[in-house]
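writing this on my phone so excuse typos. first protein, seq and then structure
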Amino acid sequence: MDYSTLIAKDLLKIKAVFFRPEEPFTWASGIKSPVYCDNRLTLTAPEVRTDVENGLAELIRANYPDVEVLMGTSTAGIAHAAITGHIMGLPMGYVRSGAKDHGRQNQIEGRLEPGQKVVVVEDLISTGGSVLEVVNVLREAGAEVLGIASIFTYGMKKGLERLAAAKVKNVSLTDFDTIAKVAAEEGYIKPEDIERLIRFRNDPSDESWM
């Protein structure tokens, strides 16, 4: 099944992806963006959530058939790793953004044996920095990271280069170009906005798209 258009429609319908080129959002990094993405909203929309989790399970089976454990990114990837792990009958855990300062001081939660084949479940990839930290923690613990499965990727140059340099494969249910195309077809944005959105995606620091 082609999930990319289905998930694009789903994310737009529940405003998990929201385009506002005329009134840009400001990201935590200070970048002005024509798009806001909050995939956590998929968790409170059961029909969309079902599409996402079935899609992730299919994506993982097709791309990483040898997977033994799913590891979610903290916090957005945890629920998706749990539900997808349930569908696939696989163990899951998650990686904290930092080691906790109490108890056993784990950064990896859940049982992970050295040599196990792991797929990282992430909700969104932009510049790739946070997900690569997770990959590094898992590699240091002796896991064999097969790659990443994510709901949505921007396909930003910086992110693609970082993933390539770290030799990490990522597969996503949908991407920025697909969502922009579907948004124009369904009247969320004007067709002429697509070119501006792609210019933003190609270089977020260049504000000429505005």
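second protein below, same order as before
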Amino acid sequence: MFTGIVEEMGMLEQVQRGQHSAVLTIRADKVLEHTKIGDSIAVNGICLTVTALSDGHFCADVMHETLNRSALSGIKRGTHVNLERAMAADGRFGGHIVAGHVDGVGKILSTRRDDTAVWYTIEAKPHVLRYIVEKGSITIDGISLTVATVQETSFAVSIIPHTQEHTVLKERREGDLVNLETDIIGKYVEKLMQPAPQTEGKEQKSRITKEFLEQYGF
């Protein structure tokens, strides 16, 4: 599990592409501290397993499914990437629950500066937008952010200069693709609201109702 608080920006040094997969070699510093082969590191919000370590570098495999559902499919050598190690049990929970499993890819429609804030408007597919709510949490390229507004086909976030300066967002331009992961809690609630499969010819009804959720403060 991750929190969406980027620890550092790494540099993609090499991409070895197979027919349906790739091996990434990434230059890093902070995230390599106490890291072992088999540990998890989020790369632009995607949970990857460290398969090799060397001085100032680590390698990770990217499978077919990941390439198909993320912006890593078009990543190139020399690109900066957001990096975050898996959250330690005694760590500070600074962002929100981030699984590192990308729901889809969004496209930056526009950016604008508003005094000290920087606004990003991002287009997203309907199956992703359904879980994005105003003032809720969204992960963009591994960054935990608060949703400012939601429109029919897009949403917007407003970030402080510090976030822009210390993440790959400072290099993102209109038309660029970004990885999106919605708040996992909403997906679990939706699943629980659905009736359970029928067993032994008996219809099963969910006990999770709107009234039940309101009663317990949701």
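Helices lie at 64-69, 126-129, 161-165, 184-193, 210-215. thats all i got for now
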